[in-house]
Amino acid sequence: IAPVTLHVGLGTFRPVKQENIHKHIMHSEYYEVPTSTAEIVNRAKVNGQRVIAVGTTSLRTLEGASDEKGILQSGTGKTSIFIHPGYTFKIPDVLITNFHLPESTLMMLICAFMGYNEAMSAY
Known about the structure:
Elements: E1 5-6, E2 29-33, H1 35-46, E3 52-54, H2 56-64, E4 75-79, E5 94-96, H3 105-114, H4 116-122
Parallel strand pairs: 3-5
Antiparallel strand pairs: 1-2, 2-4
Helix pairs in contact: 3-4
């Protein structure tokens, strides 16, 4: 178990109202990735082990704090990452999460992670 922190803002739960989802703007949210967490996650990826994100906030933190090569960076920062279908995941292999509201950014994240049809089947 390796902890991360994301201070979730109300924008995460705001419905996406734009017809073109690429026009939706996420508010920035503060995150923290301890050095020990980055080391554990990066070592797991190098060794071919699965990284399991527990919750969409953890997943967004992992993706927001990783570089273009998929290396998780330790430290603090802000992310406004909006994960929707078509996104290529760099870090997590598995996601454990709750059910999410339709038209929410979190539902779009779920659809991006597992595929639209599979997500609708689960709901």
